[in-house]
Amino acid sequence: MTRTSMLAASLLFGSLAGIMFACDSGDAVGKPCETAEDCDQGLICDVHDGQGTCQEDHGHEDGHEDGHEEGHEGEHEDGEEEGCAAETRADTYAVGLSKSGSFVTASFVSADPAPPVKGDNSWVLSFSDADGEPLDGLEIVVTPMMPDHGHGTAIVAEVSPTGTPGEYDVAPVNLHMTGYWEIAFDVTAADQQDSVMFGFCVE
Predict the structure, then answer these.
(1) String of b and e for 109-146 (b: at least 16 CB within 10 Å)?
(2) Which 3 state secondary structure label does DSSP give 114?
(3) Cis peptide leading into 165, omega within 30 of 0?
(4) How far apart are the first and last CA of the chain?
(5) What is the arrangement of strands in the sheet containing 32-33, beginning at the earlier edge strand?
(6) Which of 1, 12, 63, 196 is 20 to 30 A removed from 176 (C-alpha atoms)?
(7) Which residues contact 109 (CB under 8 A, 6 or more apart)?
């Protein structure tokens, strides 16, 4: 074998050895583990979402698993608080819930279902003046709107007197989408106009 051939063979052997060493080291990193004892010396067992792999020590083994889980738990808890549970603008339904404008006060007599839900709702409300006297002969326009989405509903709520002074049936109040709704009552009495609004979050 010539000197040139021997040099080439030596270089080839060195390259193969380097590749084999790199492969062996690479196999150790990323190997599944439960504790650091499952990993080669100098590596740690890094746990994410309950699954551990052998990794080089990047300085956050202590408390990493707990911190990671706590972070996910916080995200989960935050998720549970979203929606109507976290809605601060909504009124809490109860018989007698009332809102007042400049001259009219509207109060809930009943709601079916109670509290209001996604879909069609039937309400009975009483309307009175500043002295608490029932108001008959009102012209009432009901407008449900979702302020966060900028739309209402195509279904018009019909308003009709119940026969009891100052009381009116309102149906259907169509809250067709999950979320926060504002239901405005625009009231006209003779030459006076007023408006009151109730807010409900439905699921």
Answers:
(1) bebeeeebeeebbebbbbbbeeeeeebeebebebebbb
(2) coil
(3) no
(4) 85
(5) 32-33, 51-56, 43-48
(6) 196
(7) 95, 124, 125, 126, 167
In the block, tokens 């308003």 appear at: 159
Residue 44 contacts residue 57 (beta carbons within 8 Å):
yes
Query: Quick one: tokens of 53?
Result: 């792999």
For residue 119, what are its two tokens?
């879909």
Coil, helix or strand for 52? strand
DSSP code of residue 112 = E
Q: How far is CA 7 from CA 2, 12, 13, 99, 117, in A?
A: 9, 9, 10, 96, 85
Q: Model's pTM, two decimal places?
A: 0.62
Residue 29's CB is within 10 A of a number of other CB atoms, namely: 13
* Predicted confidence pLDDT, tens digits, the chain (203 residues): 555 555 455 555 455 444 444 444 455 777 777 788 888 887 887 776 566 767 777 554 444 444 444 443 434 455 556 899 999 999 999 999 999 999 999 999 999 999 999 999 999 999 999 999 999 999 999 999 999 999 999 999 999 999 999 999 999 999 999 999 999 999 999 889 999 999 999 99
Residue 19 is which amino acid? I
